[in-house]
Each structure stands twice: as structure tokens, then as C-alpha cells.
Request: fold
Amino acid sequence: MPIVKSPPTSRALARAWFDIGTQSVGGGSSTLFLIRRILVERLGWITMREFTEAWALSQLSPGIHLVALAGLLGRRIAGSRGIIVSVAGMMVPAAVITAIATALLGEVAQHPFTIAALAGIGPVAGGMTIGLALTMARPVIQRGRWAILDVAVIVAALGVLLAGAAQTIVVIFVAGAFGAALLGRERPTSSDAPMS
Amino acid sequence: MPEQLQLFLIFLKSSALAVGGLASLPLLRADLVPQYVTDAGIVQALAVGRLAPGPNGLYIVSLGYIVAGWTGALYALIGASLAPLVMLPATALARRWLVSAWFGGLVRGVSLATAGLLLATGATIVAGSGTQIWQLALVAVTVVVTVQGKLHPAVMIVVGAAVGLALGR
Reply:
């Protein structure tokens, strides 16, 4: 059994997640890195083992995995209070900054310079979306002979959406049912773990 | 259904039915374009989401703001914050399900489909934002850089803006 220690105050907890949410520009792995460094290494509120387990569970969550991770870690640190403080601490300040940045961009959206800049940002946004899709597809494809099924799902979803043959939501439900029936043979491998 | 409620449900649904931050994009695009926002608005939201702090999935707050101002941003924030928290009761009540083969398969099926949907959405964004040679070159470079994952994502947004200012007028 770990040594029982009293949970941190809401203020301290909110401060830690505020730092995580506002210092992690670019999201994803940089946020994950900060969570580990601040909560595990600096503050010691979470063990590395708890962090790894919560991370694995969060990968199964709908929506933003980091929110699920914040909720799971927050509960571990300070119960239901910890959930609310952690999720709000990570999300609200970052969301306010995001909304303000959007408003500022909207103010100058019609300026010729902005229009020209967006002509270059558009391809980058599209390229990032494509690159992220390839990154998502990469680990699930390395599964030996079942990879053909994986590729079939990706190609089918791509084709259906481009052809406008079915609604996006239908594609997701069908793929989920197909996966539950046919893709559950192997467990995720340790190479999917977050930390090197 | 009142329009406000409908808007909130669009944001909640997109987060509840997607696995991963940007995975909500195909669903949001299906529900919001063209009634509420154009593809140009989506590009702006993606760019702001990359430049602003916080998880990638926070582009949804930017999109909410573009669609309906601070109210839209609030809807998006609440939707994006609530949906993943379904994991909290799930890990307490149904841990056995979560580690079962069929559930792993379900998540994998949804993730793979999302990858395909995001490929299509990315292609649509590319097509909508211009297909001059320099723009296609930017797409190619960004894809490579994103897959490699070494360069900070915000850097490519800045590079795109600079190239656009130099060549896009």
C-alpha cells in the first residue's frame, strides 16, 4: 500500500493544471509531457504506474483523451473535487485564450494581409489533418495479417465520405460495430505506451 | 428543437462519438458546413487551435466562437469537457468491459474509420483552400512534418502564413 497522504488543496491542484493547460502550446504529446513532469516528477501526487494506467484508459475515451486523463488523475488525487478542478483548470484558461485569439483573428479577417496569410495557412491546416490521420492509422496497422482489415476500414471510411454515400455518423457506428465483431483479437501492445 | 440547444448538441455529439481530439472534425464539418460556417472558418479554427495553448481538440472552442460568439465557444467547451468524462463511471463500473476484446475492437474500428474520415476532411480542406503549386507544396511538407512529429505544430502555421504573405497576394 502506498503511504496515505492528504490530498492537495483545490487551489494547488487548479494551479498545477492551469500550468499544464497554458504551457502546452500545440497540444498532444507536449501536454502529456507536462502532466508527467509536473504531477509525477515535481509534485509526486501521482506515481508513474498510476499515470501510465490512466493514460491507457484515457486512450479509450471519446473526445479529447487529455480531458479523460485529467479527470482520471484528478479523481485519483482528490476525489470528485479533483475531477472538476483538474478538468476545469486545464480547459477553461486555455479555452478563454483560444476564444480571444479567434476574436482577434476575426477583427482582421478581411484585411488583405490576413487573407494572404490564410491562403498559406489553409494548405497547412489541411496537411496537418492528413498527417494526423496517417499518424492515427500507423500504430493500428502494424498488426500482421489482420492489417488488411484495418486498411479496409480506413479506405472504406475515406471513400464513403468523399463520395457522400453515407452520413459521417453512420460511418462511425458501422466501423464501431465492425471493429467489435472482427478487430478485437489482439490487445494493444506496450509499444503504444506514451513514454519513451 | 430550439436552435441554441441544437447547436450545443452538435458540439456534444461530435466529441461523444469521436476518439481523439481532432477526430471530432469530420462530424462537426458534416453538421456545421455550410449552414453555420464555411471551410474558411474551419481553417481559421484549426490554425488558432494549433497556435493557442491547451489540447489540440480545443480548436473546437475556436470553431464554436466563429459559429456563435462566446455562447458558441461555451457550448463547445462544455461539450468537449463532458464527453470524455464518461470514462470516469466507466472505469469504476465496467472495467471488465473496457479490457475486453470486443471493446478494444470497437475503439479500434472507430479510430480507423476516423483516420479515413480525417483523410477525406483534410483533402476537402486542401481542395477548398486553393490548389496552386506552392499551396500543394505546403500540403506535402506539412504532411511529412506532422507524421515525423519532431517540429512544433505551431511552426508550420507560421511558415504557412509567411509563405501565404509572400506568394498569396
